[in-house]
Each structure stands twice: as structure tokens, then as C-alpha cells.
Specification:
262 residues, eight-stranded parallel β-barrel, 12 strands, alpha/beta
């Protein structure tokens, strides 16, 4: 099981030092739409890479945005990643780009749309696809449970899951369900990669600000995942409040304990 971090410009110096315990890098495709593709080839000399997308909007009916898909594919070609990933979400409608990830109701029509788009993404990129669960402010209901939706989606799209452990934990707290029961309802062989980052909390409300150290309860939930699933990589995320190198090493050490269990 590989351990890695999501590449951010603020971490470039630390990553250039090839820190101990960091086996791989996850590249956010949109961060390279404006250039810098040559850096990906440099990264690839030191790390296995994964490419992660934010805005292909797999849940929007109709064709994928051809310009954005072409930009995404250019990043994939430069990075030559082991796999690529996107979210089970939509970020735009026919009229407007919403600028953030929005949840989808678990219906058969939505399942058809996301599965078709995931297969198209895989065909164009020529790489295996993983799909990631997101947080939602409100629980969306439909024709099936979320876990059944994800199981059927992976089968239809012939893809794996990027299970965001923090997102699962946050949804379980905000929507009042048991995350371990949710995990038991998933087909474990579909889980290929994990995301982990500390959550934020205001009163009884949990959010994924991507700015906090990993809390013990998240590690406990992640341990439950690696106990039952053939996880190939765990990626530590952080988008703000970047810590000093010593604190990063402490966060990586938490992931090392996961790997030792695995």
C-alpha cells in the first residue's frame, strides 16, 4: 500500500526533498490547465502519480465539456498516472458553472449519466478510473441507498472507488448514520484509494475545510477500511493551513501506522 500527498504549490519545496514515507503524489488536474506540464514529468521521475479531477461534472446530463476534457487529457498524458479519478457529483448545469462539487440523488437516471461519463473519461484518457464520494449539506434520497448506487455505478462503469474517509465520517455525523454499517454495504474489492484530511467542526456541524490534522476517529475509520479492502494507496490532503515539515512528518507517521496494520 502506497502512502502519498496531494501536490500543492505550497508543498513544492518539501516534495522536492523526496521526504521519507511519501511514496506517491496525487496531481489535481485543474492546477495544471494553465501550464506547468513539464513539472509533471519531473515528478514522475521520483513518484508514481495519480491525476485527480474537480470539474468534469460527471453528473451533468448531456455530453462532457469537450474543452475541459481535452485539458484534463493533456495533464494525464504528461503525468502518465497509474489511474485517474473524479467525483460522484456535478459542478455545472447547462446554463452556469457552479464552481463547487454538488451531490447527486441516487436514481437510475443519474446512475446512467455518471456511468456513461466515467466510461467516456476512461476511453479518452486511456487509464483506469476511480470515482470519489463527496460531502453533502443535506441527505439526498432517491430510488436506492447511496451504497447500492455506488456498487452499481462501479459495475456499470467498470471502475473503482476513491473512498474519501473524511467525507464519509462528516456525512455520518451530519446526517446521523453509522459509517461502519455504510462500509459493510459497499463491495470492498472496489475500494482502490483513500483520501484523508482532518475535519473542521462548528457546534454540531462538521465540514471538510481541508485544513486540519487527521483526528484519531478518522484513523479508526480508515483502519476499518484497510481491514476489509485491497487499498492500493492512501493520500493525505491539505488545501490551507499548511504545516511545517515536522508536522507533515507527523501526519505521514499516522498513515504509516495504517500501512503497518495493512
Amino acid at each position: 500500500m502506497m502512502l502519498g500527498v496531494g501536490y500543492r504549490h505550497e508543498l513544492s519545496g518539501w516534495i522536492a526533498s523526496t521526504p521519507a514515507g511519501v511514496d506517491c503524489l496525487e496531481i489535481t488536474a485543474e492546477h495544471f490547465f494553465g501550464g506547468g506540464l513539464d513539472r509533471l514529468q519531473t515528478f514522475a521521475k521520483n513518484f508514481p502519480l495519480f491525476v485527480h479531477g474537480l470539474g468534469l461534472s460527471l453528473g451533468t446530463p448531456g455530453p462532457l465539456d469537450p474543452k475541459r476534457l481535452a485539458q484534463f487529457t493533456c495533464v494525464v498524458q504528461a503525468a502518465n498516472p497509474q489511474w485517474v479519478s473524479e467525483h460522484v457529483a456535478f459542478t455545472r448545469t447547462e446554463e452556469v458553472n457552479l464552481g463547487h462539487l454538488n451531490p447527486l440523488p441516487p436514481t437510475r437516471n443519474v446512475l446512467d449519466t455518471v456511468a456513461d461519463h466515467a466510461r467516456e473519461m476512461a476511453d479518452v484518457c486511456g487509464k483506469p478510473i476511480l470515482l470519489e464520494n463527496i460531502t453533502s449539506h443535506l441527505p439526498l434520497t432517491g430510488e436506492m441507498a447511496e451504497t447500492d448506487f455506488l456498487n452499481q455505478l462501479c459495475e456499470r462503469a467498470e471502475c473503482g472507488l476513491l473512498l474519501d474517509v473524511t467525507n464519509l465520517f462528516i456525512n455520518s455525523r451530519n446526517h446521523g448514520f453509522d459509517p461502519l454499517k455504510w462500509l459493510r454495504e459497499l463491495e470492498p474489492h472496489r475500494i482502490v484509494q483513500l483520501h484523508l484530511v482532518g475535519y473542521s467542526r462548528s457546534g454540531d456541524r462538521y465540514t471538510d475545510s481541508h485544513s486540519m490534522p487527521i483526528q484519531p476517529e478518522l484513523l479508526e475509520l480508515a483502519r476499518a477500511v484497510v481491514d476489509c479492502a485491497p487499498v492500493k494507496a492512501v493520500v493525505l490532503e491539505r488545501d490551507e493551513n499548511f504545516p511545517a515539515a515536522s508536522e507533515w512528518e507527523s501526519e505521514i507517521a499516522k498513515l504509516e501506522r495504517l500501512r503497518a496494520r495493512y
